[in-house]
Design goal:
mainly alpha; globular
Length: 354
């Protein structure tokens, strides 16, 4: 690998990590504003104009708080758990395309600058799912190492929930994978862009509506967000797996959760909302202006998904645990299998569609 290629990858990693970790701070403020709007309150508005400095104040408070480690915890695993949460949430972005890749990527002095940390990974979506599933270890280890019954119950609930909902989550995207004939997120996006019927796009939400719905519901469960936050459930488990955590270690769990929300929003936008396809406009295949617009379109869709996820959190009540399990095993998994079989039959009958 040439030196300039290594430097480009390094710059992309620094940019992605910096942008998303900074975005998490303002996502928390956005969520507090949405919560205030849902509850007919004003929300944070004291720190700086319109409360825009509130995330900085929250970050400073998190860093300066005393880091309490109870004497009865399993210290190595107790410290390791939040580290796993943040690492698993961050490295998943390695294969997510944030803009044009491959032959569509803009160039500098004849060298293509691809908007992806690790381009041309043929198993991109498989990698994201595999890395995303590692986050459950953070919750299990945190719950067990805390030596607290509330934390332990939270960890147990989360492990059962993640295992249950990973099945429909994986099945829901198989339809799009079969249509695009690729596990590469960039190629799945390109298929949606190139296979529209006249002015009707071939976005996943239109060609795989059931798969899209199953993916969305399962993604809520995977991110531990309401109405699927039974691993925390403040009214029942105090705070669940992170009851014994404070200061920056609690912040790392929080950061990991919001990074998962961003990852899920990217996957939803790429797999089912056409990625950077702006609908009704042809942005061309290369050039920096086209690339910047495509990045803007994709990030706008991701932003809308993040707002939607927050809106749902402050709209729906939490499921009971039996309802949570019944939804996964008695509804989502059979529906996902049905969707897969119907897609296979239709593709076999109309083979030319792909």
């Amino acid at each position: 690998m040439a030196t300039w290629q290594f430097l480009v990858i390094l710059v992309k990693i620094v940019l992605i990590v910096g942008i998303f970790q900074g975005a998490v701070a303002y996502m928390i403020m956005l969520e507090r504003k949405i919560a205030a709007w849902a509850q007919d309150r004003v929300g944070p508005n004291r720190a700086g104009p319109f409360g825009l400095l509130q995330p900085l104040a929250d970050g400073a408070k998190m860093l300066l708080k005393e880091d309490v480690i109870p004497g009865y915890v399993n210290r190595p695993l107790y410290i390791l758990a939040p580290a796993i949460a943040i690492v698993a949430a961050t490295i998943g972005f390695a294969v997510v395309p944030f803009g044009p890749v491959g032959t569509d990527a803009p160039t500098v002095s004849g060298h293509a600058i691809e908007f992806q940390i690790a381009p041309n990974v043929d198993i991109g979506i498989l990698y994201v799912f595999a890395i995303g599933s590692l986050a459950v270890y953070a919750v299990i280890l945190g719950g067990w190492a805390s030596n607290n019954k509330y934390s332990f119950l939270g960890g147990l609930r989360n492990s059962a929930q993640i295992i249950s909902y990973e099945i429909p989550l994986g099945l829901s995207v198989l339809g799009m994978i079969m249509m695009a004939r690729s596990l590469d997120l960039g190629e799945i996006m390109a298929w949606q862009e190139q296979n529209g019927l006249g002015f009707i796009p071939a976005w996943g939400i239109l060609v795989q509506p059931l798969g899209c719905l199953i993916f969305l519901i399962s993604a809520f469960a995977e991110t531990n967000r309401l109405p699927f936050d039974l691993a925390e459930a403040e009214q029942e488990l105090v705070g669940g797996f992170h009851t014994e955590y404070s200061a920056m270690k609690f912040g790392m769990f929080f950061l990991g959760e919001y990074l998962h929300v961003i990852t899920v929003s990217f996957l939803m936008s790429i797999l089912f909302l056409g990625g950077w396809d702006p609908l009704f406009f042809d942005l061309g295949s290369n050039g920096w202006i086209s690339a910047v617009i495509k990045v803007g379109v994709l990030f706008f869709k991701v932003f809308l998904m993040v707002v939607f996820i927050m809106w749902i959190r402050w709209t729906l009540p939490r499921f009971r645990y039996d309802q949570l399990m019944n939804l996964a095993w008695k509804a989502l998994i059979p529906l996902a299998l049905l969707n897969l079989i119907v897609t296979m039959i239709l593709l076999q009958l109309f083979r030319g569609i792909g």
